[in-house]
Structure formats: C-alpha cells, structure tokens
UniProtKB/TrEMBL annotation:
Protein name (record): Antibiotic biosynthesis monooxygenase
GO molecular function ontology, one term from the record: monooxygenase activity
Organism of origin: Parafrankia soli
Matches recorded under InterPro entries: ABM_dom, Dimeric_a/b-barrel
Gene3D superfamilies, sorted: 3.30.70.100
Length: 107
C-alpha cells in the first residue's frame, strides 16, 4: 500500500572531525529506533562528497502528525541522546513530497 504524499524530514548533521566512522556505525546500530516506528517509511544516510564531516539524513513518514508524535517520544529522545556527542551542529527541514518522477535507469 503506497503513501502518495509522505512527510519528509531532511537533516543536515555536521560531525566532529575524526568521528565520522563512529557516527556511521552508531547511526546504523540504532537506526531501527526510527525505522521500527509504524509510521516510518524509511530513511537514508548520505555523506557529503564536498565536506566529509557533513551528513544528510532523509526520513519519510506517513504524515506530519505521526512524525511529530514520534519526535516527542522517549525512544526518539534516547536516539538523539546517543548521537548528540558525535554532532558538532545540525539543522532540520521538513516538507510534504508532492510528486516523484522516476528516472530512466529505474525502469
């Protein structure tokens, strides 16, 4: 069953230099704390090619209210607490996916 208009979270995380591998391993180890939530559609970890200590995390949700509920949950607060010491700074942008155009290589 598809979700035509998922709510997307786009995080930018700047990791303390020298702790990139630890961050990647920790993110993978605790990722099911996000993806096991019934409203989560999946998430992606992207490392910047231009700034090796910068990561982008994309996370899709069924809708905004369920994401906001998760965002305030004890499980999410614990997830953030584990990652926080590795982070130098970060920011979050949110939005609703309006459409998706499939590229030729995906067909």
């Amino acid at each position: 069953m598809g979700h035509p208009q998922p709510f997307r979270i786009m995080l930018t995380m700047h990791i303390h230099p020298g702790r990139e591998q630890e961050f990647e391993q920790t993110w993978l180890r605790i990722g099911d704390g996000v993806t096991s939530h019934p409203a989560n559609l999946g998430q992606w970890l992207i490392r910047s090619e231009d700034e090796p200590s910068t990561y982008y995390i994309i996370s899709d949700w069924v809708d905004e209210p369920q994401f906001r509920e998760f965002e305030l949950s004890p499980g999410h607060l614990e997830h953030r607490k584990i990652l926080h010491p590795l982070r130098a700074s970060g920011s979050m942008a949110t939005g609703t996916v309006l459409t998706h155009l499939v590229g030729a290589a995906a067909e």
